[in-house]
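To whoever is on call:

I kicked off a structure prediction for a single chain this morning and the downstream step that reads the tokens threw a length-mismatch warning. I double-checked the sequence; it's 279 residues and nothing unusual in it as far as I can see. Pasting both halves so you can look.
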Amino acid sequence: MGKNPQYLTTGEFARLCGVSKHTLFHYDELGVFSPAVKAENGYRYYSMAQIDVFFVISTLKELDIPLREIKAYLDRRSPEELVRLLQGEARLLDEKIRRLRRMKELIRRKAELTESALASGPEGPCVRPFPEKYLVRTQVPPLTSERSAALSLAEHVRFCDEHEIVSPYATGSMIGLSEVERGDFTRYSHFYTQLDAPPRGLPVYVRQAGSYLTARHCGGYDSAHETYRDLLRYAREQGLPLTGSFFEDVLLDELSVSGYENYVLQISIRLDETEGAER
């Protein structure tokens, strides 16, 4: 057919709609959106009326609706079907907005915690106040190898994922005072994920507010025993009563440094107060 002023070529239609010709060919192949006319010479022509239909498809695609669902809607479209479709998408968007807001807060807090760790620098044994924190814990079986440690940590991560626990804090660990005094620095009792507020419907361990003996360790896990010994020595020299478990928090981890040996840890234990309890 000759060029009809009521029709647009594929290139003209693509430019008008702000897409590539490949997109139009792809939509045609899927049966989602086809040209009004396919001439015998292979040329494709689109009508002016199809512009509105294409913008409907573009709008639905912006809502992340798969093309197959868009096609199914177009095949049976009606005012009632549009209401149903848009109401369903509105619910999905509400949930997506909630997730994005939660992710934004997570990113903000992670940046804040990392900046705080960088600003503080090295810190030897000292006593300072800690706020109350909530720990989602999983027990750690006896660790016999790096593999067993990795499997136990993966189990903790899986538990948190199942219960939709999202935290800016890296996974921490607990080890009893008696284990440290015996020099058994790998006998961890729990892995934990720290939270600023308690989650709903899930028991947590409360790390009570109070005075803690604490120190920062630069050098990763392999040399952490040196800082544990420094803390015990400092407690003896200062006559500080220690109670409960040591908490090993990771301040800088793989997200900000390369390799375990560059991790920065904060090791702390409460002074002369009752240890947290399960709620």
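Update from on-call: the warning came from a stale cache, not from the record. Cleared it. Sanity check on the structure: The CA atoms of residues 14 and 24 lie 7 Å apart.
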